[in-house]
Protein: 6-phosphogluconolactonase
Amino acid sequence: MIEKLLIGTYTHKSSEGIYELELDTAAKKLQNLTLVGRSGNPTYLVQSKANKVYAIDAESADGKKIGGLKAFDASSRPFTEIDKYLANGTSPAYVTVDEARQLVYTANYHMGVVTVYKIAADGTLTQTDQAQHTGKGPLPEQADGPHPHFADLTPDNRIVVCDLGNDTVYVYDVSATGKLSEVSRFSCEAGFGPRHIVFNPETDKAYLAGELSSKVSVLDYDRKSGSFSLSQTIKTIPDSWTEHNGAAAIRITSDHKYIYVSNRGFNSLATLAIQADGSVQLIDQTPAEGDFPRDFNFNSDESFIILVNQNTDNATLYSRDAASGKLTTVQKDVTVPEGVCVKLEY
Ligand SMILES: O=C1O[C@H](COP(=O)(O)O)[C@@H](O)[C@H](O)[C@H]1O
Structure:
C-alpha cells in the first residue's frame, strides 16, 4: 500500500516549502519526495477534512518580517494557493484545525500569542480572536518571555496551549464564533519548557513534553474544572548525557500503550511504556540516524514511524512492533530538506 505524508520544512537552505513523501508499506520504503506547496518556513501544517492545507508561512517585506498562514486546496498537485493571512511580526510555530467549530488555531512562539481564525466555506480564513501571553521562565534564552508552542484540542473540545517560555499550560474555552476565554493555568516546574502535549481520552491522562528540561510530565486532566494536576515527571534522555538536548515532538499510540518523544541533541526517539495506572517508564532509545529530529509521526496502522532530522536533511523509517513498542530502523538517509513536521495525509 502507498501512504502519503506531508512534510513541513524550514526554507533557510535548499527547501522550497511543503513536500509530499510516499511510504510503500510492502517494500518498507520512503520514496518520491515532491514539492507540493511553495511557502516560507512552513514549519507546521495541518490538512482539513475538506482537503485544505493550512501551513505556517513567513515572508519579509521592506526588510520587515511578516508571518502567519498560507491556505492551499490540496486536491491537485501541486497544491493551489487559496489564501494568505499574514501580519507584521514573526510566524507561528503550530497550527491545527477544529473541524467541529470550523476554526483554525495557531501558537506563535516568538510573538507570545494564540490566534483563532474562522474557516469560510471556500477554506479561506478570518481572524476572530487573539490571546497575548505574558511572563517568562528562569532561562535567559528560550524562556526570556512567553513562547506558546502548541495550541490544540483537549478531549472535551477546549483548547490547551503549551507555553514553553513561561512554563505554563493554559486551558481555554472557545465559542462557536471563535472567541477565547481562559479556564485554567497549570504551572510546570521552573525551566520545564512545555512544548507539546498528548492525551489518553479514555483516562484523561495527559503527557507533556518539556523541551528545555528534556522531561515528560504525566498530568491528570479534570474535565469538570478544565484543569491539570501533576502525577509524575521523568527524563527523556540518560542522566549521563551532559551536552545540549531539547525534547521536541511527543506522539501516543491509539491503543494508549506507548509514547514516543524525539530528542534533539541526544538524537534519538525515546520509547515510554504506559503502565496500567497511566504512569510511564522509559524503556528504549532508538537512534534518529541524523541530527535534530524535530518531528515524527505514525503511518495509518502505526506499524511504521517516519522521522525527520532538521540539520542533516534526512528522514528515517522505522518499523514498530505494536506489542513491545520496539522500533527497528528499516531505512535511513532518505533526503528531506530541513524537515520539521510530519503529517499523514487523509
Ligand atoms: O522547537 C523549537 O521551536 C521554536 C519555534 O520555532 P520557530 O520556527 O517559530 O522559530 C524555535 O525557535 C526553537 O529554537 C526550537 O527549539
Summary: The mean pLDDT is 98.
